[in-house]
Each structure stands twice: as structure tokens, then as C-alpha cells.
Amino acid sequence: MISDPRTLARFATRVENRDRTALAELAALGSGNARIVGITGPPGAGKSTLVDALALALRKQNKTVAILAIDPSSRIHGGAILGDRIRMQQHHADPGIFIRSMASRGNPGGIAAATADVARLMSAAGRDYVLIETVGVGQDEIEIARVAQFTIVVLVPGMGDDIQAIKSGILEIADLFVINKSDRPGAAKVENELRAEGHAVPIVHTVATEGVGIDAILQHLNFPRRVGLPADPGERSSPIQLDHIAVAVNSLEEALPFYQSLGLTPSTPQHVPTEKVTVAMLPPLELLEPAADNSPISAFLQKRGPGLHHIALRVPDLNATIERLRESGARLLNEPRPGANGHIYVFVHPASTGGVLLELIQDERSVGLPAYTGEQSSPDKPDQEHQ
Questions:
Q1: CA-CA to 244 of 20 to 30 Å: which in 160, 338, 363, 377?
Q2: Per-residue confidence at 357, pLDDT binned at 50, 70, 90?
Q3: CA–CA gap between residue 172 and residue 187 (Å, rounded)
């Protein structure tokens, strides 16, 4: 792990210059475990101020941060115009924040060609978060979605027809919309236009210069990309989200090395007695190994072999969701009960979902169920035939 900022800066320069030795050394370092977050949007949206505020908030949580600020290239020397480093100079004495301005060098898409490799370097160096701020050139800044695990699109009031103009560009890659400078008139109009366009993406209002709304952004950063289900605007701080994709395997011991080679870090396997299964979490994946011959997972493997078992969605109010499903005639396979990590869940039969076994999980950050007091009687476990 590279802890010295000067050594890290020199390494980053070599990576940017595509030094073959540096790239080979980078490959040998591994991928690290940083959460890579992209911040993009039109010029004047306040991206730098927002990045600055996010970095401060993360430091208050004792998280280490690397900021990659992609600046326009100087026409004189080809390097970055260091506007972002000047704006963020308050962090110069904090070893927990590493700031790197990168020249776009004419690369289209709002980021530099070496951005992905430098982000990987910051992760390998042990940073908890890598925040990548794009140039801010307009609607074609979609390359950030190929690098970041989570993409924030920043908009501001007073954009006029700009929402229509960029709807086929950066709006399509958002995992979270942030309406910055929302103390100005027109913030509600921007949100209404986004809703009217059918974007099923959470929306957070911020005033980055005052730190308003930053905590709401932090609540979203560690969740996987959305699956596109519409959310109630009143629940925008806790929308329906993809929690995990479950894969049935014959053996965790045999399966885990492959996923670890991808850079995923598994949790300690847990035994879930109600399902007779052993679970290893590698967000956004969950691996399921049968813990008994009469386990439903064992039956699934015998019938279909290893593969996709179910998809899990996190919902803001499981009780209300269950009530709506029952009113619609959907077939639930069990009453709410605790699973791995103690979360409360229900399964929905594939016949009601269009062919996939669906797990619904209570989002613990929002409206919760009463405390679980013991195992349910007659749990109506997912039957072996339809898992």
C-alpha cells in the first residue's frame, strides 16, 4: 500500500504518461476496495464545490478520499488548468485527502484517457473513496459511467430547455440526480422536468456552499446501480434499489476464488437455518451453498445446476409493499422473517414476477417492521420446484 503522498503523486504521473513499467507495477498492486464515484454535469452546476463538500463529510466519517479533478488541457503546455486544486487548497494539510488534477488532453467524454488507471491506483493505495469530477463540457460526458461504480449528475435551477437538450446524454447515466443551488427559484421545476421524462432515479436537493443535502447524498453512495423501478417522490431518500443478485453454487470454497480474482471481497459465510443454506456476500452478489441435502438450494442445483437463483430488491417499507402485493393477487412464498445479516425479507413466486424468484428486503434506513421476536410458524418456504 502506498501511504506517502509524494510517492503516490509520482506514481500517478507515470501512469498518466502511460509508462509501461508503471502500468505493470499497477497491475501487480491489485484493485483495492475503494468506492469510485463520478460527478458530472453541465458547466456552472457547482461540481467542484459539491466534491469539496462530499470530501469534508467523508473525512468526518474517518474515510480517506482521493479526488481526481479532470480539467481542460492548456493549449500552451498541454497540462491541466489547475482550477480545482486551487479551489480545494484548504485540504492541503489533510493526509486523508489526496487531490489530483488531470488534463483531459483532448480526450472526449469529459475524462482523461488514464482516469480509470489512476482511479485504480488510488484504490490500490488504500483510499476508501475516489471522487472523479468530469470536465463539464455538456451532454456527451458519458465515459464516466464506464469508470465509476456510482454516477452523480449535478443540475441547477434556471437551466431552461437544457433538460430537454441533454436528456439523451448524461441524464441517461445517472444513479443519482443532485439539484445543486436549490435555494434558487426553479429547483422544483427541474425536479418536475426530470420526473416528467420518466427518470426513475433518486433526486437530492443541495446547497453545496452551505453543506445542505450532503448527508442525503452519502446515504446513496454505497448502493449498487438502480434497476429502474419507479420510486414515490416522497420516498426519494430511500427508493427501491437492487440489493443483490443471488447465485447458487455447489461449493463456496470452489466458487469464491474466481470472484476474489475480480476484486470482490467476500463476507464471512453465514449459515441461515430457516433456508438450510450457507451464504457469502460479495456485493452486489450473494453466493448460496446448500447446507443440507433437503435444502431448497440443493433441490435447485439438482434440477437446474449452478446459476442465477434470485434477485433481491431493497424496499423502503416492506409491510406496505406486502399489502400492495397481496391486494394485487401476487403469490408470496413466506411471511417476513430474518435472513443473513438479520435483514427481514419475503420471497415472491416467479409466477407473479414474470419468471424470476424475487426477494424483497426491508430497507433498515427507512420505515421498518416491528422487531423480530422469533421464528414464524408455518413459514411457507420457497418450494423446491419454483426456486
A1: 377
A2: very high
A3: 20
Going by C-beta distance under 8 Å and a sequence separation of 6 or more, which residues neighbour residue 232? Answer: 239
Model pLDDT, residue 50: 95
Q: Which of 361, 358, 366 is nearest to 316 (CA)?
A: 366
d(CA 20, CA 114): 13
Which string of DSSP letters, residue by residue, matches 42-78? STTS-HHHHHHHHHHHHHHTT--EEEEEEEPBPTTTS
Domains of the chain: 5-235 (3.40.50.300), 241-362 (3.10.180.10)
Residue that has been written with the C-alpha cell 452519502 in this structure: 218
CA distance 155 to 213: 14
What is d(CA 155, CA 182) in angstroms, rounded to the nearest whole number? 9
Backbone angle region of 217, left / alpha / beta, with phi > 0 → left and psi within -120 to 50 → alpha: alpha
> How does strand 277-282 pair with strand 270-272?
antiparallel
Q: If you write DSSP's letter for every residue of 207-222 in order, what string do you get?
A: BGGGTBTHHHHHTTTT
CA distances from residue 289 to 235, 276, 277, 367 in whole angstroms, order as listed:
35, 9, 6, 31
For 348, the grid coordinates are 415472491
Looking at residue 136, what is its pLDDT? 66
Tell me the whole-structure pTM to 2 decimals. 0.57
Q: What percent of the chain has pLDDT over 70?
A: 76
Question: Could you tell me if 158 and 184 are in contact, meaning their C-beta atoms sit under 8 angstroms apart?
Answer: yes
Distance CA 191, CA 182 (A): 10
Polymer length in residues for the chain: 387
CA distance 192 to 161: 13
Helices (H), the chain: 5-16, 20-29, 47-60, 83-87, 115-124, 144-147, 162-166, 187-196, 214-218, 252-261, 296-304, 318-328, 350-353
The rounded mean pLDDT for the chain is 80
CA-CA distance, 198 to 201, in Å (whole number)?
Answer: 9
